[in-house]
Amino acid sequence: MALLPFLAFLGVDSVIGSVKRKNMRDQAIAQGAFLPYDLNKHHMIWQDVYRDWDGEKKLFPTEYHAYFARNKEALEKYMVGLVSIQEIAEGRKPVLCVGTYNKFTFSPFHGFHYLYDEKIKIFNETGVFYY
Prior knowledge:
Shape: elongated
Number of domains: 2
């Protein structure tokens, strides 16, 4: 008989834990955290972006072209943003998103703009090149 209250406690505790896990999962899904990566699709998007750069450059602002021709790191960082935008549009967490991800606040070009906006502006206005 002493075992019956203990089993009842375990049952209630299990239900409470399940509800908490479900709430946490639902919150994470709402933030985009549990949508699966699709590495195959990720690589296809990268190839499309590279193909565009090698061709018509429709995905790249014209004021960036000359700078990107000299700075491949900046070009790749911009490409990461383009790929991330496409993955988000498909409802996935970007493969190259490091750390926590919230689809409502994530900015794929934040790092790019922070590092390169001023350098590109100076390059376009004066011809002085900064990495």
